[in-house]
Amino acid sequence: MRGSIAIARVKSSIAEECRPFAFCTLPRLLYAAAYRAVAAADALTLEAWVEPLHVGETLPAMPLWIAADRSVPLDLEETYQMACAARRIA
Predict the structure, then answer these.
(1) Which of 4, 22, 21, 16 is nearest to 47 (CA)?
(2) Distance of CA 79 to CAs 3, 19, 37, 57, 70, Å?
(3) 14-26: per-residue pLDDT in tens?
(4) Which pTM was predicted?
(5) Range(s) of the domain holding residue 35
(6) In 1-84, at which residue ranges do the beta strands (DSSP E only) sit?
(7) Distance of CA 61 to CAs 12, 39, 42, Å?
(8) How far apart are CA 37 and CA 83, in angstroms?
(9) Which side of the chain, N or C, has fewer Cβ within a 10 Å radius?
(10) How far apart, in whole angstroms, are the C-alpha atoms of residue 12 and residue 9?
């Protein structure tokens, strides 16, 4: 039960983060999301980075958090292309 509550909170946080953008109203939204938990004085908060995805367009780079205060850029397009080449898909 705790896992499903945590997942619901993550989804809610991502939805809240992308609310200002028009693409969030689409019925079948495709998006890439990265998030991290940030410890405040008395609670954890969730920071989210949300990028819309569109079929046929280049995938974005997203932050990959490797420590509380350090991230590295993860190039999703490059990773996808390498995976396709390795599997001989493309």
Answers:
(1) 16
(2) 28, 28, 25, 15, 20
(3) 666 555 555 555 4
(4) 0.65
(5) 2-87
(6) 31-39, 44-52, 61-67, 70-75
(7) 22, 25, 32
(8) 29
(9) N
(10) 5
From CA 21, how far away is CA 29, in angstroms rounded?
12
Can you tell me the distance from the alpha carbon of 47 to that of 70, in angstroms, rounded to the nearest whole number?
14
Number of domains in the chain: 1
List, for residues 18-77, the tens digit of each pLDDT value: 555 555 554 457 889 898 888 878 888 888 888 888 889 999 999 999 998 899 999 999
Question: In whole angstroms, what is the distance from residue 63 CA to residue 73 CA?
Answer: 5
Q: Are 47 and 38 in contact (CB under 8 A)?
A: yes
